Amino acid sequence: MSTMNTWDQFWYYLVHNGSYILSQFTRHFLISIYGVLIAAIIGIPIGILIARHKHLSATVIGIANVIQTIPSLAMLSIIMLGLGLGVNTVIVTVFLYSLLPIIKNTYTGMENVDRNILDSGKGMGMTSFQVLYMVELPLSLSVIMAGIRNALVVAIGITAIGAFVGAGGLGDIIVRGTNATNGGAIILAGALPTALMAIISDWVLGFLQRKLESRG
């Protein structure tokens, strides 16, 4: 019976606070996207660089691995000391956690390109720049997309704890629920859209990844 009551309360909360939940959903998604996008802009060139200079790969991937082992709440707290409360702290945290899958997958994708295809491109008179943008990147794109896909799903989870540093998002609704006397319905109103966002993002990027693989 209590479960039924909780679900009744959930639907009631959803109907009466739909615009608030939608605004926090949008805020949550944008924070996650910004962090992953910045990581892609920086991480993909780093992945290309270490594929070109393999002696750097162990060090760079090792540093990204170390970042990944730091608990997300601890990372938020450390960054908060420099940037203060708010959205920027969460975006930087998401950026740092997104680096490893993006760098690693870019490196792996570049490494897996058939050397014979590269030799053919060079034999046709292509410059190194042309080989990169016309051969290597298109053939690596599905692997790079897999890294971005993993990064975004993780980012959505990390952004949820951004409520602890005043960033808002769906985590803010979950925190409200934990502070309420009978907050199960409020927690569901934050947790279910968060899970839905992660599932949809994973499906859409997975679909794009498969499309890129079939083209390759």
TrEMBL record:
<dbReference type="InterPro" id="IPR000515">
    <property type="entry name" value="MetI-like"/>
</dbReference>
<dbReference type="Pfam" id="PF00528">
    <property type="entry name" value="BPD_transp_1"/>
</dbReference>
<keyword id="KW-0813">Transport</keyword>
<feature type="transmembrane region" description="Helical">
    <location>
        <begin position="151"/>
        <end position="174"/>
    </location>
</feature>
<feature type="transmembrane region" description="Helical">
    <location>
        <begin position="29"/>
        <end position="51"/>
    </location>
</feature>
<keyword id="KW-1133">Transmembrane helix</keyword>
<keyword id="KW-0472">Membrane</keyword>
<dbReference type="InterPro" id="IPR051204">
    <property type="entry name" value="ABC_transp_perm/SBD"/>
</dbReference>
<feature type="domain" description="ABC transmembrane type-1">
    <location>
        <begin position="25"/>
        <end position="205"/>
    </location>
</feature>
<feature type="transmembrane region" description="Helical">
    <location>
        <begin position="72"/>
        <end position="103"/>
    </location>
</feature>
<feature type="transmembrane region" description="Helical">
    <location>
        <begin position="186"/>
        <end position="208"/>
    </location>
</feature>
<keyword id="KW-0812">Transmembrane</keyword>
<comment type="similarity">
    <text>Belongs to the binding-protein-dependent transport system permease family.</text>
</comment>
<dbReference type="InterPro" id="IPR035906">
    <property type="entry name" value="MetI-like_sf"/>
</dbReference>
<protein>
    <submittedName>
        <fullName>ABC transporter permease</fullName>
    </submittedName>
</protein>
